Amino acid sequence: MKQFLREIPKVELHAHLNGSLNIESIKQLAEELYGEQTKEFAALCKRFIKFEEGAKMNDCFEKFGFVHELTATKRGLQRATELVIRDFAADNVIYVELRTTPKSNEKMSRRDYLQTVIDAIKSASKQYKIMVKLLPSINRGEPLAVAEETVALAVEFAQTEPDLIVGIDFSGNPNLGKFSDFTAVLSLARNNGLQLAVHCGEVDNPREIQEMLKFGMSRCGHGTYLTEADYAQLKEKNIPIECCLTSNVKSGTVANFNDHHFRQLMAADVPRVICTDDCGVFDTTLSDEFHWAMESFGLSRSQCVDLTVEAMKHSFATPQEKRIMQLLITERAK
After folding, report:
1. Residue 154: CB partners within 8 Å, gap ≥ 6?
2. Given the residues 97, 202, 242, 289, the one annotated as active site
């Protein structure tokens, strides 16, 4: 069964760039940047993917500092992007939407950051024969001015790279910031043709969930704490929930795989897709996520294929790219 899942052409719609570097790629990146690594570095890598029982969401966000140091230069960022794309392609992912928050430091501006990622995507997508899109991310824990700069850059780059810059991701630690502070800048992005992928209902915050649903989105990230009434709204508007099984279990927002809200989404027939979130941090692959879904919810092979087609339909790909994906998926499902 695992072989079947690996061989299915898959579609990844929720993947954060820095969190998608797996351990082997982190080691490779570090060695390319700094030379042979020490035993201490190897131990740090092990801690990167280790989650203690009872881990909370804040524990997950603390792990990203480790990777951010490796991607703090143009060279490191470019190589990291290439390695992430390579690893998705190795899992037979034929289409991936990468999300990343443009960062600035003494070595590069946010504009430099985005340009570096764009250049890396262009080269790696050709090398590994995979379709890749980019969603610049708004980190809700950062000042509004940073979000405004990010959207301005995204709108600008989308003019010259319309088939690459396709949307904006709203994410970050859900316990920080207020969604209402960002609605104006998100509206600006939407009014300029960018799709919105919004982390919604990642924590139990009913007031904010209703604000987000009223504002609207193209896709809903996680949706862990949505109600049946919320499900009905999403179903009516054909807005899918990006389900990240391992991420939710390891970050402590879901007790275990069997209790994941994917089961309720199936029962309510709400649009849903299976994603990895941060496959490096959570030590998983998209094939693994489908495996857990089959084990936990009794999915058949045909249902896994249907979920892949569902992801294709809800992607921000062009109509031509969707036709290509449909053919690839259909051919493998025969």
Report:
1. 114, 136, 165, 168, 189, 194
2. 202
| Total-model pTM | 0.92
Q: Which letter, b or e, does each residue of 131-156 get, where b requires 16 or more Cβ atoms within 10 Å of its Cβ? A: bbbbbbbbbbeeeeebbebbbbbbbe
Q: How many CB atoms lie within 10 A of CB 162?
A: 11
Neighbours of 298 (CB within 10 A): 10
Average pLDDT over residues 138-159: 98
When pLDDT is cut at 50, 70 and 90, the band that residue 332 belongs to is confident
Q: Average the pLDDT over 248-264 and give the result.
A: 94
Tokens representing residue 131 in the block? 């379709």
Give tens-digit pLDDT for 221-255: 999 999 999 999 999 999 999 999 999 999 899 99
Q: Are 20 and 280 in contact (CB under 8 A)?
A: yes
Q: Using CA atoms, how far apart are residues 135 and 228, in angstroms rounded to an integer?
A: 29
Decide if domain 2-333 falls under CATH 3.40.1380.20: no
* Both tokens assigned to 4: 């079947």
Catalytic, 211? Answer no
